[in-house]
Amino acid sequence: MAKEIKTIYISLPITGYDLAERRDLAERARRRLRERHPGARVISPFDIADVIEAEKPEPLYSDYMKEDVALILDEADAVCFLVNPRLTRSKGVRLEYQTARIYGRRMMRIRPGRRPALGKTLRSIAGVLSGGGRDLLSACPESR
Q: How far is CA 83 from CA 3, 19, 42, 112, in A?
């Protein structure tokens, strides 16, 4: 029987992105994880950042990463990645992945609010244009 998951850490790329968009993405992931794992404590990097920023006026990148890794080591039963940790350019996500892998944390991946992949969309459009597949416009509720 699998070990009960009590604490889940959310891992996502943050540096170089719009912080409000990333915070929103983490919150959507938190909601989905709480649905899948009722009773589990779900922690995002923003929860940790809020504490760090309240204590230190100008935190360094390393301040955030030290706390994120410490949480994975000390408290997390699982780490949920919002991107593929082996393919991302995010150093933070890759560090969190290696920490989780080395220390045997359960790993999962979700895509909150995921849009269809561009390749799939283009294949669907190509199918309609070539006369194959179903008519996408007739499948849209707005066109009925």
A: 24, 16, 17, 10
Residues 38 and 102 in one domain: yes
pLDDT, block means (10 residues), the chain with 144 residues:
85 94 96 94 96 94 96 97 90 96 95 55 48 43 36
Helical H segments across 75-141, by residue range: 91-102, 118-129, 136-139
Q: Where are the beta strands (DSSP E) in 2-142?
A: 7-11, 41-43, 78-81, 106-109
What totals of helices (H) and strands (E) does the chain contain, helices first? 6, 4
- pTM for the model stands at 0.76
Instruction: Please give the structure tokens belonging to residue 9.
Output: 């850490």
Residue range of the domain that includes 139: 116-144
Residues 104 and 120 in one domain: no
Domain presence at residue 125: yes
